[in-house]
Amino acid sequence: MTVFSRLRHWRKRSQLDRDLQAEMDEHRQMLEDRFIREGMDAGEARAAAARRFGNTTLTAEASREEWGFRWVDTLFRDVRFAARLMAKRPAIVAAAVFSVALGVGANTAVVSVLQALLLNPMGVSDADRLAVATVRLDKLNLPKAETSGVEWRELRDMRDVFTHVAAMEGRYWTSDLGGESVRVIGRVVTPSFFDVFAVQPALGRFFDDNDREAVVLSWPTWTSQFGGDRTVLGRMMMLDGVPHRIIGVAPEHFRYPVRARVWTPLQMAASRLQKRGYNMTLTVVARLKPGVSFHQASARVNGYVEALKNDSYAQGKNYGYFVDLHGFTDFVAGDLKRTLWTLWAAALAVLFTSCASVAILLLSRTAGRRREIAIRLALGATRTQVFRQLVIESLLLGLLGGGVGIAMAAGATSILGELAVPQKELLALARMNGSLALYGLVVSLLCGFVFGLAPAVQLMRDNQAAGMARAPRRRFQSVFVAAEVAAAVVLLVTTTLLMRSFWAARQIDPGFRYEGVTTAFVLKPKNDPGFLARAETELRAAAQGPVALAYPVPFASEGLTAGFTIAGRKVQSGEPERHGEAHMVTPGYFRTLQIPVLRGRTFVDGDSADSERVCVIDSRLADEFFRGDDPLGQKIGMYGGPATIVGVVPALRATTPESRSRPVVYYALAQMNSTSTVGVLARSPGNTAPAIRAAIRRANGSVAVFDVQTLRERLDELLGTRRVVALLVLSFGGVCLLLAIAGLHGVTAQMVSERAPEIAVRLALGAEPRQILRLFLASGLTWAGVGLLAGLAAFAFAQRWIANLLFQVKASDGLAVTVACAIVMVGVAGAVWMPARRASRTDPQQVLRHE
Amino acid sequence: MASDFLPGTLDMLILKTLTRGANHGYGIAQHIQQVSEDTLRVGEGSLYPALQRLLVAEMVKAEWTTSAETGRKVRSYQITAAGRKQLAQEKREFDALIAGIARVMESV
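ok -> structure tokens follow
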């Protein structure tokens, strides 16, 4: 009842206000008249009436309180006042806004990546109900392998824990989109795939059990390749020359897997469902039944596998066979998680520092505002009102800074996909959206509150005991400066460690010369048996150095993993499992990469499909399995029957420089080429990409060439995450250090100017300038020193988390810590030095004359 | 200056004053002061907020009329039916309060 009535009256408030004012005037007038009747003269009467009536303004305000929603009007008024004040001090406002923008922007940008990868991975909103199954073969050093059809069948039958279980396989096709032969990456999936993710088609439908040559488009493919045309359903799309009917389009938010352009149905042959360990190329994704926890599902699967190993699959024990369940988020972004949370912590440190920096800025201005506040208090404002207005000022500052920060973050997220890191497609998913903007808003309001608190408290205290308030203010500022220094120290130590890790990884010699080699991939044509030979000939003619065809391409992927047997050689004790990688290469491979030959020979053109099967092994295989015996002439069986070892080459780090490859068996590509994709390597100066494309086109015009990169670019991308993270933390640390230096400089400068009379007196009384210098240096450096120690302590506490990101560097590395501390101390000393020097150079006559 | 009323009694006194007839703020304050023989002096700082409160709660109505005595425009308040009901209830509560206090004071 009263609320509506209050609303009604509130709407008419300006009229009510006028009425009240007029009414009170009338009242005063009537008092005046009475006093005159009682005998006072006009002037006296007016004064007496005014006195009797009391404080009009307060009465009016108290009356207005009754109308309710007063706080809204008060809020607007405070905001307008704050805005006017800020307009008068543009420099301070700009500095503060910039600081806050940096902090909020960095934070929001990192959280946007967190959201895209961890909280809402690839548009999957209930990722905690999804699990991914992988096969682990402990004895064969295969920790996370794809599964075979058997595991899928078994999991699918566990209807007590999973509602839907789907299997998915990666595929490349050659398609004719846009008139050109292009490679299309996609996934072949069992029909329940989209049910696992609980998504609905944006257009058309998804697969059912009867679909064969059907295809579902991803949203980006539909919008970019087909122009978002709604009549696309029913049209045909060529995949490897086979027409597929387009039956549906996936919704916009669904981006799993992030590279997939299309999905086609997976029809599993019956044999695949029976032979365990056969064709292990499936990724199995399952949706947990409602009410079933991840742990329960995991336990169920583990129990099943244990029973299996005791019963029908006894060899599983020999291999160390397990089926592991992973949370979807872990599986998709697991190795990035730690990095991302570290970046988030670093961004928080920046936020923290910018708050401290703004607080210092505001504190340094409190002297000027004392008068203004004293007047307001005298005019009748309550302390609460003044305090509230001060807080509103800082909140407004925070909001402004936050707004700029959110805009900066939006800009940053839009270029994230350009970073040269392996996960750049995942990063490209990070977008500014409503919830992120809200996060930024809340953070900036919190910041505004936090950094506004100290100056507001200080100002209120100032007015109670004017002049005595300097010491606490100084202490506030010093604490904030120390905090900034601490944050800078933590970040800079982390930076030096990360940079050393990056450098260490860069320095590793992978065992072959990668500079100057350009690589590409081609999809082998289906009915062109002479293609590879022709391609090599064309390439040789086009390039100005050695060329080769190979699979895998170094730094792009690892080789085909399989177990092998060595003819006539029993397994020795202490020998590792006979499991390694197969690489298929043409004879030019070793020359192109300048890999020396240790024993025997590498391949020659004579090693063809008709001649004896040969292979070359690497020194790791030789050392671990031949132990000093001559491997040449022995036979190894890995793929396609036994092959005679004709040579030994050094072990390389071909997959990634940070870890050793498995034992490698090289086959001649002419004798074994089972993959649908083949890599091209060409050592040639300059930009070889067009030459490679032209050569392949001459060999066969319909073959798609893709992923053209130099080996150096591939290596950079592998190390890309390290580099990007190191650079980011460096820039965060740099910002913190700059803010700390600015803060310390400002505080010291202010201290110098406030104590100018005292300095002058000291100098006049015979003190040496050096002593003045030392005085200020000491006071400035003491607090900075406190900050340094606090920072080191904080780092010691946090180093456990950073340790995982490092490579060949320990988190307690003395060199890194020393370098970082040195940088901070130099910066800090410089900040204090200049004002201190100015102090020591004071001319006492000048200063004292002014007093 | 302004007496410390038990909270809420000012509203009751204003309403009671208005049952005698419409009046303006000055008149209400005068009336209370005179009838209570100077015991109760309503400061203007309490009077107007109370009047606004009663206005918003719709216990009284306000309108601008011309005063018969001075010929000037004054804002005159009138009690409403809801106001009368409120007055009756507040009087009952107040009486009960006074009786309770009296019993305590007279006990031995």
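The first helix of chain B runs from residue 9 to 19.
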